[in-house]
Amino acid sequence: MEDKEEENDPLTFAVIGAAIEVHRVLGPVLLESAYEECLAYEFMERGIDFRRQMVMPVVYKKIKLRDAYRLDFQIQDQLILELKATDRKQEVHEAQLLTYLKLSGIRKGLLINFQVPMLKLGIRRFIM
Length: 128
Known about the structure:
alpha+beta; Endonuclease, Chain A; 5-stranded mixed β-sheet; 3 helices; globular
């Protein structure tokens, strides 16, 4: 699911740059909510258009489950960003991001875990 071509994507690089700045200032010891708040600030400062805590509904037969999922960031309708702050990589986190990509129709996603000594160790890129 990862793609080396994504490394040349300016939007992805801008988002990663903002995340690196947050991690550089705060380090790897806070809760996910703190990183989310600071990353939103960093996006605003850099002029990166985003939506935060977006509800992703699921349709089951004739009912719509409006609050089934809530993604952390949708960036310029082109990229989904899911944040974590955990000392263990878990497959469920990757599955969560893949679900968001499938439900939204957006092709690109980043899973960023801030609980690492160097942020580049906590970044995974995905393409559907």
